[in-house]
Amino acid sequence: MCYQNHQSLGRNHFYIKFFTIITLLLGGIFISPSMGQVFNPWGPPPNDKNIDANFLRKLANHFSAEVAIGYGSTRYRQNLDQYQIYSNNASLYLLAEDSLGNTVGIGNWLNNPLVTDTINTTSAAYYQSNLNESDANRNYVIDSLEKRLVGGGNAIPIHLKIHFNYERFRIGAGATFEINTKANMQLKGFPDYIASYQSDFSRFFTRKYYLTAGFHYYDFWDFSYFADLEYGNFRLSESAFPTGNVSTSNYWNISFPIEKNFSEYFRLVMRPSVDLKSINTIMPTGQSIKTNMWNLQFQVGIRVSFPLFKKCPIGNCEAQKEHHHIDKKFRGQPIYKWQNPKVGENHPYNLNEKRESFPFLKRK
Prior knowledge:
- The protein is mainly β.
- It has helices at 2-39, 55-60, 351-354; strands spanning 63-79, 84-87, 92-97, 103-107, 114-116, 125-126, 140-142, 148-166, 169-181, 184-187, 197-198, 203-220, 223-236, 246-248, 250-255, 258-261, 266-276, 278-282, 288-305, 323-325, 328-330.
- Among the domains are: 1-39; 62-80 and 145-305, Lipocalin, CATH 2.40.128.
- A hairpin with a 2-residue loop joins strand 8 and strand 9.
- Keywords: Membrane, Transmembrane, Transmembrane helix.
- The chain crosses the membrane at residues 12-31.
């Protein structure tokens, strides 16, 4: 009896070992791929030496889009040496003669010249810079000296640019929409009792369409420095600057943007720039007056690039740079994340954990 029991226990022990081995073999066949993802998530299979993005993603990765808003100051400048100027206690007029030889005044000549025949110069004093006059209620005729009408207005520009980036160079196109305030101008170097010029519009709009090219010339930590050039045309509001009176030309814009690199694909852009443009206004006499409309601007916005690889789907993956998971390649940082793209996965701490905007809100 004891021998039979010992023999039965031996068979049972054999069956247990046999089924254990079969189970381990089957588990190795069906479970090993998923176990490989857990224990070796960083490398591709040994027979796959090169995992790369497809052609469309490679091409799209060279493109970036920029949107920004800011503030601008428009500076107006006119040379009026060829005209006599009439100043009363409220307005400025350019003096001319009508077809009958009578003296008339031309007002509002910046954008929409208007002729008035109520000008009476017989009682006006001829302005001389060496006389100490200060009668604001008197009318003056200015027929000598250098006559430069200068002044300004404000603007709020909003732009959208599309760039193709290759190494340190970029080219692209863009559009800018500006809201401009009224123009206030004075004769440079003349006293306060000489009237100023105020436009008849309270605001107007400017649309600009252009080509742009730039060069990335310097990096300092996570800041990048560029020099950009724009060339295009602009259009002014028809209600304020009728095309029958005012013609525009092409313009130039020079800017030196500074970009704060939040990640490889997301950047804060600070763009100081200057517009160089002008208009020509046709006078009723057939002459034209050129007005320089230089514009100093400062805009703040963002620039986003199309990522080369999809974001890593593993939530607890700490890689910050591009890396492999089995047979796919991913980027380690979200597009918007504030971190240094030069720091790799072997760094003990993610830079974004050190420099988050609100670290106390992060879930532990």
